[in-house]
Amino acid sequence: MEQQPLPQLPPASVSFDDGILRAIDVGDVYFSAEDGLAESRYVFVDGSGALNALADASHLTIAETGFGTGLNLLALCEAIAASNSRCQIDYISFEGAPLDAKDARYAHDAFPELASLSDDLIANWPRRWHGVHRFSMLGGQVRVQLHYGQAQDTLPRLSFAADFWFLDGFAPAKNPELWSQPVCHEIARLSKKGTRLASFTVARQARTHLSEAGFHLEKAPGFGRKRDMLKGVYDKGFIRTQTRPAEQVAIIGGGIAGAAMAHALTQLNIPHFILEQAEKIATAASGNPAGLLVPFLSVGDMPAARLSISALADARKFAELHQLIISSGVVSLDFSERKASRQSKLAAQGFPEDLATFLAPKDVAHKIGIDIGMGGLYHSAGGVVSPPDYCAALMADSPVYTNAAVAGVSGEEGDWQIRCHNDQHFNASHIIYCGGAATPQLIGSGFLPKKQFQITSGQLSYMPQNTALSPLKMAINYSGYLLPCGAGVQIAGAGFDPDERREVTKEGHHQNLALMPEALKSLAASPDSYSGRRALRLAVADRLPVAGEITDTRYMLTALGARGLTLAGLLAHSLACRIGGRPDFLEQPLVAALLPERLRDL
Ligand SMILES: Cc1cc2nc3c(=O)[nH]c(=O)nc-3n(C[C@H](O)[C@H](O)[C@H](O)COP(=O)(O)OP(=O)(O)OC[C@H]3O[C@@H](n4cnc5c(N)ncnc54)[C@H](O)[C@@H]3O)c2cc1C
Ligand SMILES: C[S@@+](CC[C@H](N)C(=O)[O-])C[C@H]1O[C@@H](n2cnc3c(N)ncnc32)[C@H](O)[C@@H]1O
What is the DSSP string of 146-182? Predict the structure, then answer.
């Protein structure tokens, strides 16, 4: 059976007529020609009831169909700032045909009072990649999850309970899909008793489907020349109680998983600390001097690829912000017939240019500075980072206890005592196990079958930087990888030995050479001159990480395999949302695919 490809986004097709942004295909405008900002304030921010709620609520979840230029988000931020509200907001929006940043900026220019908010939004404007994009506004008070893809496909994959809905997806007559019965039922599913909605339209289709889904609707005076707008309240559903936020989270392990957890918890103001057995952070797998950020793409629609794409967008953004990119871009070589055929299928899937572009051999040669007669996929958003620097940037604002080797955990849910080998004790309401290869031992086999975990040892070869390989300008990826020279060496990685050896061996160097395509191998110096580094990776058979609850107040983020640098950040933020009772942005099928629980069934 033909596999469904990963969904891609359609090209944006917009025009500006007299300064008014219009969707050419749909034949509708993005916002009122009269005064879009005034309409947004009137219909959505005020008309939904959100403005009132800002005064007293400590947290609100506001969802929107049709992000467009983000004008409703800007109007909301403006209202928050003007009212000095301290309310934390999760803003969840859906967009099927994302605009380019420059078009959005041009549209915002009509509202000079929004200039500084627009600057923030445009600085965060996501890459045009299908999937979820996260960013925040107002210094983190408003956390945005922007889901790129058709709302009718994305909504059923999410789980949250909105307090308010802004329904802003073009006129129903011109864009019926977004007002269809299934979409309105999804809007209801993602609501709770008392959820309010607002829309500029009172079209019959919208009213029929929303009221069938359980919303009690009323017409209210519309904005400007429009006679009516729509308001609604959800009468059904449950009153959902807010999860009690975690009081103190202990993160066990100071590698990239622990560091990413610390950063994610910091962003949600959740108290936490890290326990690391070594003298300093990032000494195990995350202690390699350099590693790749690179997407995993699949020919069919696979959870691992969806995860990898959103995670790379997230990781690259963090790395750029903290100036962690040592070398930008990665080329995945067509180094074997099998890989070449897979890559040409990938190239035909129409990924965005900055995610994957097919390069002919001469273009690869130009890009990487060495002619090896091979084509490949160029990932401009990929790159090389230093894992210890990455960890340090992630943990910058978190308490870290080093020389704290956890020996055991006792207590009960929400009240854990952690004992270290040096007899130090720590208390925590929640624990997150991020111990890398030591995690299975740390949690004990009573919880999860230890046999499901696979530990492999991998070696980096530090090669001299005066060989015919040394002109390499950009990281290349094959079965292993080769990095541009840095800090006096050129790094090649990394084989997978199914054991737990930790010493660097000549055999390991030969193995790294053997992974190289012939054209590269012949340019390398003799392994006698190499030094190196070895570390252990943890994975499970399905090659997906393990992220999620093992009991009510114990979690794991581990089994990052050979992709921890790309994946840890996004997964940690998803877990932190769950720990903090905030809406998770990861699609539920993906959340389920990553749960520790799945290991019982493998
Ligand atoms: C040779 C090699 C090359 C790699 N190249 C890449 C690459 O290019 N790109 C990429 O994305 N990934 C790469 N990886 C994989 C990547 O390094 C891992 O996915 C990632 O580092 C795992 O991070 P972690 O935090 O889960 O584990 P670790 O980095 O191993 O961290 C676990 C931490 O837990 C601590 N710990 C363990 N037990 C205890 C305890 N009882 N008490 C307190 N602390 C404890 C350890 O000391 C350690 O610091 C490579 C791996 C190897 C081995
Ligand atoms: C009226 S505009 C949004 C106006 C928005 N307030 C703004 O600031 O521009 C509607 C938006 O909904 C998006 N949209 C329409 N149908 C969609 C669908 N099925 N899924 C996701 N987004 C959709 C359009 O691409 C467009 O950006």
Answer: EEES-HHHHGGG----EEEEEE-SS-TTT-GGGGSHH
Q: Which two tokens stand for residue 55?
A: 């005064």
Summarize pLDDT for 325-362 with one digit per residue, the tens.
999 999 999 877 777 788 888 888 889 999 999 999 99
Distance in angstroms (rounded) separating the CA atoms of residues 503 and 515: 20
Residues with CB under 6 A from ligand 2: 30-31, 66, 68-72, 94-97, 150-152, 168-170, 175, 177-178
Query: Of all atoms in ligand 1, which is nearest to the CA of residue 535?
Result: 53
142-148/88-95 β-pairing? parallel
**Whose CA is closest to atom 18 on ligand 1?**
564
Helix (H) or strand (E) holding 183: helix 181-189
For ligand 1, mutation pick of 425, 563, 566 (most atoms within 8 Å of CB): 563
d(CA 338, CA 332): 13
CB 74 within 8 A of CB 108: yes
560-594 tens-digit pLDDT? 999 999 999 999 999 999 999 999 999 999 999 99
Ligand 2, residues 13, 32, 95, 165: which to mutate, most atoms within 8 A of Cβ? Answer: 95
Radius of gyration of the chain (CA): 26
Structure tokens at 254: 């100071």
Residue 478 half-sphere exposure, CB side, CA atoms within 13 Å?
Answer: 23
